Write the structure tokens for this entry.
Amino acid sequence: MSDEIRHEWPLFEVFVRAKRGLNHVHVGSLRAADHEMALHHARDLYTRRNEGVSIWVVRSDDIVASGPDVKDAFFAPSGDKAYRHPTYYSIPDSVPHI
Amino acid sequence: MAFDDAYDALTDHEDDTRWAFGTGFADPLSGVPTSVPSDVDGTALATYCLMLADDALVLSHRLQEWVTRAPEIEDELAIANIALDLLGQARLLLTRAGEVEGRGRDEDALAYLRDPADFRNVRLVEPPDRDFAHLVTRLLVFAVWRLALLDRLTGSRDPILAAVAAKGVKEVTYHREYAAQWVVRLGDGTAESHRRMEAALAAVWPLTGELFRAHPTERDLAAAGVAVDPAALRSEFDAVTAQVLADATLVSPMVQPTDMDGGRDGVHTPALTGILEQMQAVARAMPGAVW
């Protein structure tokens, strides 16, 4: 038992997998006292309409995000590399199933 | 199975494509026969359905009272979800009661037009919540008891009761987990939360004796393989609550068995009258109104 009272619960980010074979997708955030409570809350807030088969929760503090100031250095260089896309290449008629 | 496009393997084409609203909703009674076993008395079965329906209906109403009043929005939604689960169970059971009773009453007539003395719920679900500790304590007691009951009811010879129980088991399993984690959190929390949990236990536990007392209708139908004898739920109830309360550093009070007539006989606390006045006011003032 502790007498420490925290007046605001930390923020968690919630990721839900809609069905087997799909990725977990970020659906929103919530507040909870710890990870177990965050999972319960995520179930109650974000899977009420049959949206999910699996949930991830992660403390928002633990997410490291890229900032707007690195936007050009991170993302602009890929803008002119059309050869990285499969549609850049023409497909021979003899190759099926593509 | 082979797919021309690899992505075909990842999706189900028959599903609704609006992912945000989910897919694959199912009717729990789909394909379930509605006939009553020939040796079962319809009136007795109707009374039993009312007992289980009224337990869920009245507690659902008490839980709904927390909407806009819960301590956190996340818990408000959790409580509303649980209230809706119980309301859903009540609706199916009231409909079944009306069906086998054969007096032309539907779920609305049974919910809105019966007087308090005709309700068959246990008194545990009647008092208003004093605080959040009281809410989670009563919900734990109710969910542990009802899960033990529904679990056994899945083997009922009445196909509708068995199907309603199978649906309810999954729902109440979550209610029990939700309540238990809060009981442990508050019992093993601060000095203030521990004190409130002790007060809640003292308020709720005297109402548990009634949960294990078999009404003659329950006893007869249990012997016929249709109902569950509540006396058989006592050992599971004691074991589960003892474990949760130990984790919560709370002392498990004794269940006081009772022989007095109770909610199953239509003997209620004044609190039920207050609930029904509120729940039934509109339906009684404007009979047959729809919106």
Observations:
- The longest helix of chain B spans residues 73-101.
- Confidence is low (pLDDT under 50) at residues 15-20 of chain B.
